[in-house]
What we know:
Elements: E1 14-20, E2 23-29, E3 35-42, H1 52-61, H2 70-81, E4 86-93, E5 104-107, H3 112-122, E6 136-137, E7 142-147, E8 155-156, E9 162-163, E10 174-175, E11 179-181, E12 187-190, E13 194-199, E14 202-206, E15 208-211, E16 222-224, E17 227-230, E18 239-242, E19 245-252, E20 256-259, E21 263-278, E22 282-294, E23 298-311, E24 315-317, E25 321-329, E26 333-338, E27 346-350, H4 354-376, H5 384-402, E28 413-419, E29 424-427, E30 430-433, E31 442-446, E32 453-457, H6 465-482
Parallel strand pairs: 10-14, 15-17, 16-18, 17-19, 18-20, 19-21, 20-21, 21-22, 22-23, 23-24, 23-25, 24-26, 25-26, 25-27, 26-28, 27-29
Antiparallel strand pairs: 1-2, 2-3, 3-4, 5-7, 6-13, 7-12, 8-9, 11-12, 13-14, 28-31, 29-30, 31-32
Helix pairs in contact: 4-5
Amino acid sequence: MDNPVFAKEPGSERRLEVKRYGYVLEFVISADSVDCYCSYEPATTGGSPLTDVELQGALKQFKITYGVMPEAVTSLLNAAATAQAVTGLHLAHGIPMLQGEDGYIELTGADEHAASGNEEADAGIIDLRRVQTFLNVNADDLAGKLHVPGAGSYGRTVSGIEIPPRPGMPITLELGQNVRLGEDGLSIFATGMGRVFCRGNVVSVEDIYEIDGDVDFKVGNIVFNGFVEVKGDVLDGFSIKATKGIKIHGIVGVCSIESEGNIVISGVNGQGKGTIRCGGTLSANFIYETSIECTGDVLVETEIRNATIRCLGMLHIHKNGLSGGECFALAGIDTAILGNVANIPTRVVVGVHYQDLEELNRLFNELKLLISSYTSAEKGTVDPKEFARKRTEITGRSQEVRSRIHDRCNPKINVRKVLYEGVNITLGSQSDIIKEVRKEAVSIIENTIEGGLRFIGMTPLEFKAQTIEQTYVNQYKLQQRTT
């Protein structure tokens, strides 16, 4: 078998000419020798036109033997027979050499934006706030893949000579923080939680994401496995979701802020639509008209106004107070002022696990619906035993919820300066509405002896209401024995 002949590197195009008495025939070979074009000019002074024999002889002479297109040959000969000129006719086409794909790094991870974006796209909605791609990973997740360069594929010139492929350029991978290379030398795995980044050839998983300015249309919504710090404001309509915590130096508008960790913000004005979900402690200078759900404490420097707060820790307001809205705090409330001079409706529920309360409400509605269905059904269509079984089941679930004990439960309110009239207070199982203003430091706990609320000299919130009330109960029992 003959050794293969390879084409040389591409140079410039070649022009080959055949002159006869009756015509001029020109071939143009492309620089890569893969294409051949021809031009035909009949003579004006007589002579014979180009024939098939002459054309084949010219092609053989110039070694144009591969990829000659029969339809182009027919078109050329027809033009010659009718004394028509031809310019730039594509006569032959070889096989282009395909260069190998360069090596590259492919990042992997879960993009939560992409899933929601697909649903919105199907509905014909374009979310202009979805600017960035957040490829989030956990430890041992595949963070990326290194793709080796491709070999390319052979080509062939119009002379039948093979064109060797040029392989792609390799890429040099550099491992950054929180990543490791797999045993195959190509797979990149995360060694910690975070977002996958690639800067140049350096791949890393980073768990801190800093925004130097505002969260706006340049930054877009954020979904990040790690800690997010915003040096500016979060503008209306944007959202931040981070697993390890969020710190916002500026003001939060009508936004959705969510983290499994602590959240620190300068202030928030949700205008009745903003929401914050915090899995740790929430700290803020002020909170206005925002719905907040917090697993830990809520610590506010200045004031809370017209907000809906549900927390499983304590609520502490340092300077001013709490006015308007509704607040649930399992571990107590400590505030300088409670309520307001304008009697804006203010409701506080303390020492109650709001999720238990919601569950009890659901069970109550379930029981109410069950009884309604039973009483409105035609006689004989409902099994009384089945009704009784379901009713007993719902009642049992309700009793289980009511019997739950929470270590942080502290039905106690400390008001350091002013308690305004009109405030609706629920402490544990006792509720009352404040009838007159109190301008003194006071602690409020349940009065389990007489019912209602008990107003006593203020003690630190760390002294639990149950312990204090037990002292009153013991004194009452002692008095009962001596009388």
